[in-house]
């Protein structure tokens, strides 16, 4: 089951691992492996990438970064195939992504001995990019009856779905709000009228998908392979300025 109806699906450059993710998910349908187990798998992959970066084994680090992106898609695929959507899985995924992003930037800062200010700006930028992408994507999914586990406004803990505990949902929701609440507010303030947008064309969503976490990790992987580790942090600090191009474009096409 895709996240969007076929006529509203767009080419998502950050979702390059989806074909392999589907193969992985399909191979796990009849097993006892749950989406949470797959999420734990991408956490392990991310941590292995960090160990490799610290050891300057950049090709291996790139492999684990890409594997992390693939498994990040596979957990949702498995949830849809097994028809076991959960808010526990949704928030656990997001919280894990946030913590890994912190560690990725800190690791690159340690290895490159770059400016701590640049590292901070790069992290803020990465989070704002991903939040903007998810903001538009979730609006689109809610508008066209797609997957609705993610909500446009995460202002209160949702009721637990079948098979999950409310206490787990509440705890992970609080962590989600702690980590993402400020970024959600910033993006909403930048484009508060997006929720009423009558048109989010496929080409626009494809452009926005360059801000997706999968593509961010791919950029890091490529830069590591080409021995450009010293440029990763400055790149993401500057790349975030494109947010101030994307938002006006969205407003213009819905004027």
Automatic annotation (TrEMBL):
Keyword field contains Transmembrane: yes
InterPro entries, alphabetized: CDP-OH_P_trans (IPR000462), CDP-OH_PTrfase_TM_dom (IPR043130), CDP_ALCOHOL_P_TRANSF_CS (IPR048254)
Pfam families: CDP-OH_P_transf
Keyword Membrane on entry: yes
Protein name, as recorded: CDP-alcohol phosphatidyltransferase family protein
Family membership: Belongs to the CDP-alcohol phosphatidyltransferase class-I family.
Transmembrane spans: 36-59, 91-111, 117-136, 202-226, 232-253
UniProt keyword terms in alphabetical order: Membrane, Transferase, Transmembrane, Transmembrane helix
């Amino acid at each position: 089951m895709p996240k969007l109806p076929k006529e509203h699906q767009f080419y998502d450059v950050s979702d390059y691992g989806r074909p392999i993710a589907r193969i992985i998910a399909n191979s796990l349908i009849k097993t006892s492996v749950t989406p949470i187990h797959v999420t734990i798998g991408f956490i392990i992959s991310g941590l292995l990438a960090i160990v490799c970066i610290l050891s300057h084994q950049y090709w291996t680090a790139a492999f684990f970064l890409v594997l992390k992106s693939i498994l990040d898609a596979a957990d949702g695929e498995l949830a849809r195939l097994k028809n076991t959507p959960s808010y526990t899985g949704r928030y656990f995924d997001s919280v894990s992504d946030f913590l890994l992003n912190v560690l990725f930037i800190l690791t690159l800062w340690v290895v490159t001995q770059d400016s701590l200010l640049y590292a901070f700006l790069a992290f803020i930028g990465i989070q704002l990019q991903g939040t903007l992408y998810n903001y538009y994507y979730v609006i689109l999914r809610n508008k066209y009856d797609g997957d609705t586990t993610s909500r446009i406004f995460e202002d209160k803990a949702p009721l637990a779905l079948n098979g999950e505990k409310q206490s787990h949902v509440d705890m992970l929701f609080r962590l989600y709000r702690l980590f993402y609440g400020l970024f959600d507010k910033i993006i909403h303030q930048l484009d508060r009228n997006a929720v009423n947008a009558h048109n989010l064309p496929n080409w626009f969503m494809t452009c926005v998908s360059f801000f997706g976490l999968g593509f961010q990790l791919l950029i890091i992987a490529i830069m590591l392979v080409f021995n450009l580790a010293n440029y990763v942090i400055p790149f993401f600090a500057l790349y975030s300025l494109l947010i101030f191009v994307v938002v006006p474009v969205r407003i213009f096409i819905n004027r």
